[in-house]
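Here we describe the complex-level prediction in full. Unlike the single-chain runs in Section 2.1, the two entities below were treated as one system.
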Amino acid sequence: MTASADRDGWRSRHTGPAGVVLLAALLTTAAAAQTPRSATEWLERASEAVGQYSFVADVIYEQGSHVEALRLWRDASAAGGGRERLMSLSGPPREILRTPRTTTYLSPAASPNPRQRYANRPLRLPGPEGIDRLDQSYTLNLEGQGRVAQRPAQRLRVIPRDDQRYGYALWLDQRTGIVLRAEILEPDGWAVERFMVVELERRDALDPALLDPVLAEDGTTFDRLTREPTASDAGGPLHGQWSVNDLPAGFTLQADRTQALPGHDRPARHVVFSDGIASVSVYIKQSGAGQLLRGAMSMGGVNIHARVDDGIQILVVGQVPAATVERMANATVRSSQPNTTGQQTE
Amino acid sequence: MQDETEQQLSAYADGELGRDERRFLERRLAADPALRQALEWHYTMRAAIRGEHVPGVEGVADRVRSHIQAEPAHNGVDDPAQIGWRRASFMMQPVAGLAIAASVALGLVVAWPMLTAPSTPAPTATPVQIAAEPTSGSLSRVGGPSAGPRDGAVDAQLRRELQPYFIDHNDQTAARAIGGTLESARIIGHDRER
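The structure predicted for the assembly as a whole is:
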């Protein structure tokens, strides 16, 4: 008996009312099994959604008194990984194009556009291991249902276990897990940053033309910067005698590399720490001819703290409270030098 | 409960709220400045998403309320504030009507002149002009008061120094939990100062 005949025989024996009922029961069970039941499972679904769904979304981004309207095209079906295009809908037209290997940034040539370095970076959320690690720094709570972009949403709260990081309120699409709304919250619940989808249109696949830039094709002059990883990205760390001590709990090293910075004639050492959600960059470089940076600053959703130590510019950037970037800046010290928090370097 | 109110405001701004729910919400709006501010946010969002700037949209709810309260009450039964908001709602019905076909944001362009000076033509829509600039000190809260042009702003050279770090950090951490879009939004939202 051939495999085909075998399948036909199976079908003839199992079709009929009982078979249909059984099949329906199995499908129902499967569907129920796919519905996340815990906050962790919802976050995993959100993580998986990034690579699963293609869509066009209109997005509002807010920080402080600033509001931006953006349109996002994301194609999860693209060969070799996802592609996305993000374009501003208000103000000067700007675009960001992402592929698994490149980021292209288009903005009006008249702007003081930074010469940007772009890294090889996958378009994905942390995997299950990364999500498990969140337990060290956050409590995850399900907070009932909501509605965003006219879609039912599962509300999820990511509550920090200490004051070294912000909290997060997330609204995940009930059907797909796509993050429809995200708020970054101070301990008292006030948002310092908000991202919200106001319209979402899912597509089986996007027309490739939709992922092509539209800027620089209308006669206007635009800067187009595209870069792939360079050899300097993989080089050993510069200023290797410097280290970051007294890390806030839960933060672990994610990257440590030497790289060029746009507009800077000398390379910088770039060390990245993350607690699973929040990321903090520590830049260490020889201070040059430019202005030395000192003190607490903020910019578009991140806090910054800078200091200068023995001719070395130390600058910490992160989506964490100001006290945390200050702590990490002060904890960045030369070996055998006590840091400014009084901790002795090992 | 807060989310329920948010949903009601969103539905109100979309013109999707039922008659009874709408009346109930309007009574709350009349008495609650914070709620009016939240409603403004919904209108502003709808304007922003269309790439439109509605001159004077900021504070529209309070101005509607002041406008109405400046008029004598028509009867002594209802609270003046409630009357005001009921009337405001009536005048904003065209907004709700337009919302069904398009969006309340577009409707506001038409509705606001109606509320202040009925004979004034609708202003021409211009792009929203909002610029994110680096400032000294820590992050401000969403919806917080706008800083003055130079309040807390760092000088141009300092800004040029900070910019590469800012973009580099966001670009390289874009694979984090919000899926990269938030970080991209920070970059694209930042590139406004000229």
